[in-house]
Design brief:
alpha/beta; elongated; 5 strands; five-stranded mixed sheet
Length: 242
Amino acid sequence: MRQIILDTETTGLEPENGHRIIEIGGYEIEQRRPTGRRFHEYLNPDRSVDPEAVEVHGITDQDLMDKPRFADIAARFIDFVTDAELIIHNAPFDVGFLDSEFSRLGAQWGQLADYCRVTDSLALARRRHPGQRNSLDALCRRYAIDNSGRSLHGALLDAEILAEVYLAMTGGQVTLHLGARDNEGPAQPVAGDQAVSADRRRLPVIEPTAEEAAAHAAWLEQLDRDSDGACVWRSLTGEARA
C-alpha cells in the first residue's frame, strides 16, 4: 500500500523532439495516509523552455540555470519510487519523459517500469465518469477539493492535489493532514483527541442480520470493482472476494 503521487513539468510536449523534464514532484502515501515524505527537484534541461510551456507552469530558462541535471538526481529518484505504485494523471506523458531521461543515461538504467508500477489516474477517472471532463481542475470541482492556490501548474503542488483527488475517487479519506506522519516518527494525534478510559462502559455490539451482511458484501464487491481491487476494508479484515 505504498503509493507515490507523481507529477512532472517539462520544456515542451514531445520527448522525441528533444524536450526534457524541468521539475519532478512526488508525494508519498502509505495505507492511504501521507507519510510526510516528498521528492521535489527543479532540473536544468540544457535547452530552452518553450514559451507555451512557460505560460502553463511559469518556469523560465533563468529559473533553471543553477539547478542540477537529471543525471545528478536519478539515483535518489529511483530510491524514492522503487517498489511503490505511482499514481500519475495522464501517465503516458510523464512516463514517456522519464523513460527518455533514463535512456539518455544509458541502457543500464532501464525504464521506469523496472522500478515500480504505474496507475493512470486519468484512465481511472474516465472509467468512473465517462463522457465528462476529467482534468485535475475538473475533478477538484467534482469532489469539492480546494485548488485555489493553483494559478499555475507545479509538479509538487499538483501531486498533492492529485493525492486528495485520488483518495476521494477511490472512496477513501481525503483530509490528508489527519494522522499524517512526518519523518521523525509515527502518526501524531489530531488536536482534540482524548484518551479512552479502560474503565469505560462496554459498548453494545449489534450483529447484522443476514440481509444486512449480504448488502454489505455486495457493497464491498462493487467498491472493489470500482477501485480496481484496492478495497482496503477487505485487505484489513480478510473478507473473501467473490
